[in-house]
């Protein structure tokens, strides 16, 4: 395997202060995050099945079982607007059933159907500051902590133990939904508040890690998901907490920096007296907090994250916390514990995030054809990364003992260097559950580190990229909304959360222009569509999975139909394929090119080549035929399929699998693969071919056993 050289990350630019808007001003927000919008209404609807809709509202897919009838489908909907006004919600409270209305003015209860009551507040003073709610989520599972940007309401909206069969905590979305714990969380627009306090809590081995440090949660602290002492069977549960509340009234000081110090510094000022390796034979390490007056811009930390990874990864908008020994080495918080993963701590200021925001805003409108009318896309699917060092799957016997996720990095990096693409697309399943290589055990599924791995080779090379979300991506510690927010702050990311009222997250359309957009006469010549095919459909019994895969819903199809432009050609990307990709449904006009190595597992169905196109009916393919701009589609999901067919004039294409920790066809002649898409003639023609990792020969090259496929 070829080694990937470490290249510098994109340089960061500074960005001026954020604009404030008056509550009655219909002004477009210039806030962080870039895709934020003002939530103006919340509603709960009781439904008969999974196909629950409310016009103009976004449905949160986690359904509520806290109401009077546990077997009913109760969904929370929210409505957004792009301008700050007196309609914007500024705060949300959940009150126990029969509890009192929250103190203060401006509180309104949303439609109750039994169970806990949800109230919303509209505070003109906060609206004037741009401090308005821009995202609402329901987070399933017992873990009594909230992710960094989210404010959690501490009243469980689920039925708890009364939900029936309870999964203790698996983090996978279908099990977590059935566990009976559902928490409402929300984010507030505008700049992040300075971190004022940092605490570390160690809870003994055998204690309930889900509630470790819960007393701090009641004091306004937020706990990070990562156990700083894991994954290991030994030692205490150690968690990091932060607060943005002042230490005392009128105090404007903040946390200006963090360092990791050894035992000799224990007891000194600013050192938190909790061993980060409590209960293990690892190196005794402690966190030292450096305080700042908070009067200088950029002097306050606004983000602190630990990443549980198999190696150190630089983070584009973060600075690693160093070991205070003069070496300048990022501190491994699990130093000296062979059974545990390396864990690194990262910090950032608001200025770091704003710089990425500005850079991405500039890049998003700068996709154009080169001087010869060409545009190249490097397409990867099903990387299946995990936070820890996972086992490789379906690889030749001769490399089983040496194979690791390094092989995935190397293959991706090598193909990026070979192809020199204008855009990189990852077509879903960046993350997936895997057994750890050292012991085969699957530990709590921390998605953030896996995502860092998936995009690392792209960030190293400073390339623009976009993603679709797959069925596995939300099975870990992050929801789809979290995943999208993570991508929004990456340098080079050109995607978007999409319109809030659409089903799914990340529905987007990118246009490719004739030349640099700032050149006179530049015109749109080609389009790229991205659809969220979501994860799974559910049965009504407390959220258990039905075994069928998610679909592109009618709201997404309507959005496409309203914006399709048949004057230019287009490509469409979605992780789970449409049923028309099967060669068994009788509508195909050409023979298969490529390998049909497993059953088709399309949208709305289980896995069977004889796909039922009527139940459920997924209207996306018919919309493509009617509106006429999409000439080819690309999907992953079924790793052992990499074929192309022509279905009524639309080329339908499988991506194959690029990740060594994902299952594969296991062909002894090569292993993983990616797809190159060449758009030529300023969008008038396009072709595609596969590049394979010929692992036993030690070469990466085009799969010359198959012809280059003309897409249109």
TrEMBL record:
Gene Ontology MF term list: hydrolase activity, acting on ester bonds
The entry's keywords: Signal
GO cellular component, one term: cytoplasm
Pfam families, sorted: Metallophos
Domain Calcineurin-like phosphoesterase as annotated: residue spans: 375-640
InterPro entries: Calcineurin-like_PHP, Metallo-depent_PP-like
Signal peptide (UniProt feature, chain positions): 1-21
Name used for this protein in its record: Calcineurin-like phosphoesterase domain-containing protein
Organism: Kwoniella heveanensis BCC8398
